[in-house]
Amino acid sequence: MGKQMTEMLKGTLEGIVLALLAEQPAYGYEITTRIRDHGFTDIAEGTIYALLVRIEQKKLVDVEKVPSEKGPPRKVYSLNAQGRQELGEFWKTWDFLRTHIERLNNTNEEN
């Protein structure tokens, strides 16, 4: 992945994770797998775990420890009301940026 893609992804990764958790609760490795299934193949597991710590500290998710067949209990993250509100703001911001960037791109294509 190029540097520009990496930098842009950093700014949107929290919203991506919140969107995945809005679909269904998940634990860290499962979230990483789902992100990769959506085409973000170069995302490191460590990046996701660090982000999960941040969104937990921001109280955007509820966390439940669920027994695991292999090792210690897993932390399962589910989006709470505050997380849904944050996700709504993310989508509003995304729509604004997408619309204005597409306008810039269309203007440049016309010239």
Would you mind describing this structure in some detail?
- This protein has 111 residues and is α+β, with helices and mostly antiparallel strands.
- The protein has a single domain, classed as Arc Repressor Mutant, subunit A.
- It is 67% helix and 13% strand.
- It is built from four helices and three strands, in the order H-E-H-H-E-E-H.
- The protein has helices spanning 3-23, 28-37, 45-57, 81-110; strands spanning 26-27, 61-66, 74-79.
- It has a three-stranded antiparallel β-sheet with strand order 1-3-2.
- A hairpin with a 7-residue loop joins strand 2 and strand 3 (74-79).
- Helix 1 (3-23) crosses helix 4 (81-110) and helix 2 (28-37) packs across helix 3.
- The longest helix is centred in the C-terminal third of the chain and has 30 residues, at 81-110.
- The protein is elongated and about 60 Å long.
- 13% of the residues are buried.
- The mean pLDDT is 92.
Strand order of the largest sheet: 1-3-2
Q: Terminal Cα separation, in Å?
A: 29 Å
How much beta, percentage-wise?
5-15%
Radius of gyration: 16 Å
Mean pLDDT: 92
- The CATH C-level name is Mainly Alpha
What's the count of strands?
3
CATH topology: Arc Repressor Mutant, subunit A
Give the helices and strands, then pairings:
Blueprint: H1 3-23, E1 26-27, H2 28-37, H3 45-57, E2 61-66, E3 74-79, H4 81-110
Antiparallel strand pairs: 1-3, 2-3
Helix pairs in contact: 1-4, 2-3
